[in-house]
Structure formats: C-alpha cells, structure tokens
C-alpha cells in the first residue's frame, strides 16, 4: 500500500509516506467507526443525507455510458426493480439484510411522490436500450455523524452501488461508477472519495480495487468488519 494522503478543505495537504500491507495500520486522521454500506435497516438506495446534501456532488440529471444511463429521474416502471433491490437476500447480504416487501413498496411510493431522486448524488442505473432499472448508484456526502473519514471536517464524497442480482458479473457497476466519477472529476475540485464496505463483501472490494480505490483501514461495526477505501477524485479525470 502506498503512503496516505492528508486532505483539508478539499485540498491534498500532505502524504504520510507510510507503507503497509495491513489495512489495520492507519494514520490517525482516519477515524475507524461505522459504515454506510454496512449500515443495517437503511436499504441501499436513496439515503437521506440531510445537511450533507447542501454540499456539492454530481449535479448532472443524466450520465450516459457505453451500455448504461445513470438518471436522477425515478419512473413508475422502476417499481419492481427498486423493490427487488431491497428485498433480495443475496443483494442485501452485506448491506443490512432484506426488507419486508410492504415496507419497500411504501418507500418507493414516498420516494416517487416526493421526487426524492432529485436529492444530490442518487442515481438509477438503467440499461440504455431498454431503460430498465438494473441498480442504483450514490455519490453523496458522508455525514460527520457516520464514522470513517479521511479529512478533519468529514463530509467527504462517498460512493455506493447496488445492482440487481441478475446484473452482476457483467461489469455494469464498474461502468456506472467510472462514468459518475469521471463527470464528478470534471465538475468538482480534487478531493478524496470514500468507499466503505463489509470486508466479507468480496465482490464490492474487488470492484473497489478495479476502480483504483485503496483500502486504508478496517474496523468493527454492526457486528462485522468494515473496510474503508479511498481514492483521489482527480484520478478519474480523463
Ligand atoms: C457490489 C456489486 C455492485 C458488484 O457487482 P459486479 O457485477 O461484481 O461488479 P462489476 O461491475 O465490477 O463487474 C465485475 C464482473 O463482471 C465481469 N465482466 C463481464 N463483462 C465485463 C465488462 N465488459 N467490463 C468489466 N467487467 C466485466 C468481470 O469479469 C467480473 O466478473 P467476476 O464477478 O466473475 O469477477 C454487486 O455484487 C452488488 O450489487 N452487491 C450487492 C450490493 C452491495 O453489496 N453493494 C456494496 C455496498 S458498499
């Protein structure tokens, strides 16, 4: 593992020079507490980020890629896909467990009524030929209330992704995340991006590594080990 970058006010202010293959060896700036992706009872989509939403993230209404369209708009036709994401035990294995269908139906109705996908950084990942929902992506601000930060002020950009089980193994999450991060890198100043996932979630960790995120710490939260990964946003600029 290379040295760790230190950030303040969105600017890289230093580098630790620390070398370690052990994700447990950390610079003190990195707080080892909870996890967004490992957070139980929240479901994977459309987090309520409260005050964080006032901070900047990706603003595009749509982000196209070769096979996909990331769109902020949630459609009635997304209902089954949206419900499946939150009720499929395999999809939910590392992100809080499946939710009761009735609860998720109510949440979909509330989200579509309130047009909640307009909240910053939340996208439907759709197939660009059929417009069918295959997952969701989040590039939002990590609350200071949540543990796991790489800056003193917190509220760093954080990436999250969830695909329907039938869409795994085709590179869709990689393609969606790359597209979102490239546009964000064009729009926003360089800053760290976080990715937090259960250490047992090997698919998510493999994806994080393929995207270029480095694991920098592990910690226990919700009865499971979590891994905090980070990458500079500028890495995705083309
Ligand atoms: C985490 C998750 C999004 C990863 O999905 P994924 O499909 O494995 O991820 P990628 O998009 O990177 O696809 C990689 C796989 O597609 C394959 N692939 C096929 N075509 C590809 C292409 N054109 N480009 C890239 N990869 C391709 C790769 O070989 C790899 O296959 P493998 O699984 O056999 O190693 C998915 O497992 C998921 O939704 N899990 C549940 C939710 C969750 O835990 N989210 C994480 C919260 S932090």
Structure description:
This protein is an alpha+beta fold. The chain has one domain: Gcn5-related N-acetyltransferase (GNAT) (Aminopeptidase, 3-Layer(aba) Sandwich), CATH 3.40.630. The chain is built from four helices and ten strands, in the order ββββααβββαβαββ. The strands form two sheets. The chain has an eight-stranded mixed beta sheet, sandwiched between helices. α3 (172-187) links the parallel β7 (157-163) and β8. α1 packs across α2 (101-114). It is globular. The protein binds coenzyme A. Coenzyme A (COA) is lined by residues 37, 44, 91, 94-95, 160-163, 168-174, 197, 201, 203-204, 207, 210.
Hetero groups: coenzyme A
**Residue share in helix:** 10-25%
Mean pLDDT: 81
The count of domains is 1
Q: So how many helices?
A: 4
Order of helices and strands: EEEEHHEEEHEHEE
Gross CATH architecture: 3-Layer(aba) Sandwich
Give the structural class. Answer: alpha+beta
Spatial separation of the terminal alpha carbons: 24 Å
CATH class: Alpha Beta
Q: CATH homologous superfamily, by name?
A: Gcn5-related N-acetyltransferase (GNAT)
What about the largest sheet? 8 strands, mixed
Contiguous runs where pLDDT drops below 50 for at least 5 residues = 1-36, 38-54
Based on CA inertia axes, which overall geometry fits? globular
> Strand portion, in percent?
25-35%
- The largest beta-sheet arranges its strands as 3-4-5-6-7-8-10-9
Number of E-type strands:
10
> In the CATH scheme, what's the topology name?
Aminopeptidase
What's the Cα radius of gyration? 17 Å
